[in-house]
TrEMBL record, chains A, B:
Pfam families cross-referenced by the UniProt entry: Peptidase_M32
Binding, Zn(2+): H263, H267, E293
Function: Broad specificity carboxypetidase that releases amino acids sequentially from the C-terminus, including neutral, aromatic, polar and basic residues.
Enzyme Commission designation: 3.4.17.19
Gene Ontology MF term list: metal ion binding; metallocarboxypeptidase activity
Organism expressing this protein natively: Leuconostoc mesenteroides subsp. mesenteroides (strain ATCC 8293 / DSM 20343 / BCRC 11652 / CCM 1803 / JCM 6124 / NCDO 523 / NBRC 100496 / NCIMB 8023 / NCTC 12954 / NRRL B-1118 / 37Y)
GO process terms (BP): proteolysis
Essential cofactor(s): Zn(2+)
InterPro entries given in the database record: Peptidase_M32_Taq
Protein name stated in the entry: Metal-dependent carboxypeptidase
Organism ancestry: Bacteria, Bacillati, Bacillota, Bacilli, Lactobacillales
Top-level taxonomic group: Bacteria
Keywords assigned by UniProt, alphabetized: Carboxypeptidase, Hydrolase, Metal-binding, Metalloprotease, Protease, Zinc
Amino acid sequence: MTTQHDLFDSVKEQTILTQIAALSGWDALTGMPKDAGHFRAEMDAYLAEKLFQVSTGSARKKILEDLEADDSSLDSLGHLVLQKARKDFDMTGNIPEQDFIAFQKTLSEAQDFWARAREANDYKVYQPYLERIISYLKQFIPLWQKNEKTPYDVLLNQYEPGLTVEKLDAVFDQVKNGITTLRHKLSANDSIPNDEFLSRKVTKVQQSKYAMAAAQRLGYKLNKGRLDDTIHPFMEALNRDDARITTRWDENNFQMAVLGILHEAGHGLFEQNVDSKYDDVRSVLPISMSIHESQSLFNEVMVGRSKEFWAVEYPKLQAIVAPTFDDINFDQFYQAWLKTEATLIRTEADPLTYPLHIIIRYEIEKAIFNDNVDISDLPALWNKKYKEYLGLEVPDDLTGILQDIHWAGGSFGYFPSYALGHLYAAQFRATMTKTLDFKAIFESGDYSPIFEWRKEHVWQYGGAVDPNKVLEDATGEPLNPQYWLDFVNGLYENFK
Amino acid sequence: MTTQHDLFDSVKEQTILTQIAALSGWDALTGMPKDAGHFRAEMDAYLAEKLFQVSTGSARKKILEDLEADDSSLDSLGHLVLQKARKDFDMTGNIPEQDFIAFQKTLSEAQDFWARAREANDYKVYQPYLERIISYLKQFIPLWQKNEKTPYDVLLNQYEPGLTVEKLDAVFDQVKNGITTLRHKLSANDSIPNDEFLSRKVTKVQQSKYAMAAAQRLGYKLNKGRLDDTIHPFMEALNRDDARITTRWDENNFQMAVLGILHEAGHGLFEQNVDSKYDDVRSVLPISMSIHESQSLFNEVMVGRSKEFWAVEYPKLQAIVAPTFDDINFDQFYQAWLKTEATLIRTEADPLTYPLHIIIRYEIEKAIFNDNVDISDLPALWNKKYKEYLGLEVPDDLTGILQDIHWAGGSFGYFPSYALGHLYAAQFRATMTKTLDFKAIFESGDYSPIFEWRKEHVWQYGGAVDPNKVLEDATGEPLNPQYWLDFVNGLYENFK
């Protein structure tokens, strides 16, 4: 007889394989010798095949079917794991195997041709592969569709349970209008803060010393993590006791690594503080991107751009880099720290304009899947929106539509999570400030009340509770973008 | 019908699993966060179980039996792989499963109690576990025994094909006498070189800069390797394009890391230069310890202690650490570099006395397995031999019998490989000097003729050819310890 024990055994194997794949992925992006890529590709393909077998093979299928027919052995976690394992199974299990394999191959080619297109600075090199990916997805959507209203809703729902075009349209409209109004106000103010000192030389050692100390004050633990260098920073968690962060360095732009480390440490904090009861079943309870990002952005923006934090932290930074900023007082520092400016590149955007980059991608993805826009028209569409929302002329594909790898990896419906992360973070913060005095907490030097609130209301649940429920339970209401708008308005209110 | 293809598929899976285990092992000893050990133990246990299944499971058994019955599909590599896979299979396949599992459990406990015994500085804490390991091995030896003459021969043969007590007794007698004679000569010379400057501060950055440049001049490639910090230095090769070395640092003893890095880079050189035709079957063709060690020791001793090398390298080192050694001329440097002194700890021994540490362990192991000496008598035996061979009083178990982890890991018959490594290295060097002028090569700055010789005569074969055959093919004669004695005599000839 099949019991919860069989399900958990199978999911534990999946969890261990996921952990191995995470170690390999981290290593490949931090220190793997350059020539070893071809051997690593074989190893990763083997792991992917094993993971596929475990999560969609006949043994898993039988376990799911048996337990769906007789769930008497399941406790509440068992029910959840069954439901999540079924969802994963259906994601690939509903697709004919040869289509799935062909799709994977297309993704791998597309990423290669995305890189070549970037080298050639020419979208057309990559366009045929993007077309094939989209065409596969349009073929798969009906196989995935349950009660979602539009094709794009199916994709949104995969990354963020319950998210719909209807909801997002309303949320993003409100955000777009709010940003536009605020940017208008700011542009009327013609004094530009002097931020030349932000490019003064701060050594990697100094940057690391300050940023890692700050990350640890916010609760990131080095006995459960580490910091490595990489090209595109990320956090990789093998498990809750091994959540590694990475960064890149620019000795003439210390802001990048400081905010980057706070950001990745926010992801790490989440992983380090998931309840241990989910250890074995972690692989079917991945943390949704939106809420994960809400925690990295909480660190980076809600804390890392706030005046009360820097009022306390700036002297610590000054001391570590002394005498580099001895002539810059706090007001000068903070004005420069907050400086906002529209950019062409999403990953370089400031907290105010960032959501506009996401909204542009969202609108294009919606046009692709719901309005069947022609794929050859995407660059023009992209450039038009950058002009309209950010006031920027896109000079070429490289700084335009070719900047993100996501679509080449088949990730459509994923971008909105980044914006949701910002909105969730602000809503959490608004609730926290009802009971926590951030200014007093930072001044006390003991940041643990903030840590404890986040652990209790967000982190402990890992991926076991859907993000919209975590948000509602923690804040008492569903997603409300007004909190974010209030936050950025507050941030830039006294901006000179 | 079972063909070579099936065998190679199965061995390739084993190779990939071995590679994953190597990555995990490297990570655990270099950068894994401290708290992550319990998760890593689960992951490693999973990998060990998979490896065990692949290499000793029923599928492998059938492949071996089918191909032994009909080998018509095998080419010459196929024959070799079949033979090696069979040997691996029999190592565990001949042991009843419950005994094998109990033995593994004992090993894991023994390592724990070895560590506790070290903390307590008391052999007795560990003795019962050592007894159980030895008793298991005595039970397994008859199951492994083919035509080996004595029980200990069975163990020796597992690490070094064809090695016997008879051969080793003769070799080690010659070595022991040779060292004793030379040490006598040296002790008559009462001037002790001044080596205080070896403890002058050399920063980690300087040490790394010099040692890695030297390792690369000897051919170690960083696009197929990397250097990390660790506690007990090692080389870990995932594959020939990913052979990672590690070191530890002491800013007041730069000799340790310089020689250590040369040593580990020697292991790395071997792995980086194995012929690509063995890539997929690497897991059943591991490189024997003795010949592996011959290459690390070639770097460390044959090169790294030689006058002709340092005559060229010392100015490079001086330049990197300037002005630290500006007042030390080459003769002063080299006299100190070669200083010999008996030590209690094997891993701190100089090249002259090192083999005596091994000979002591060899004689004790032989006494255990061939003469059934009482395990409670081992410390007394140990201490007696250190007094007799090295003239040292062993003050306690920690600096005596508890210094090595090997026996707690079940490795008996392994220590002689370390000594063989020294002897092989010297014999290779003696042959090389017939056609290569080391002095001229080092002076030219292009060390590649040495690299090419080692690649052609040693490295390319990986573990496909037995070490004694590699040695004989390369040097024209079987193991002859006189080359090593000649080398150390030459080294210390003009020693003041």
